[in-house]
Fold this sequence. Notes:
mainly alpha
Amino acid sequence: MSEEKEPRHEGLRQAVRAFAVLSGIGIYFVVFVGICIFLGYEADMHFGLGHTGRLIGAVIGFPGAIYTLYRQLKSGGLV
């Protein structure tokens, strides 16, 4: 009787694990890009660049986040 429940529980465990990994990736991506944009905002205020610093922060933040996420996933064996 306990053998019948094992496959269902194993599938639930895998789903929860996948959800945890994917939600962590989303949070990491938002935080990484947010920090880059914030640093760009600070550069705007300090150097009087208008919106240029935030734009540069976004341009650097998105590819940087994608690259670091790829490295993390590759080292974890997910890619």
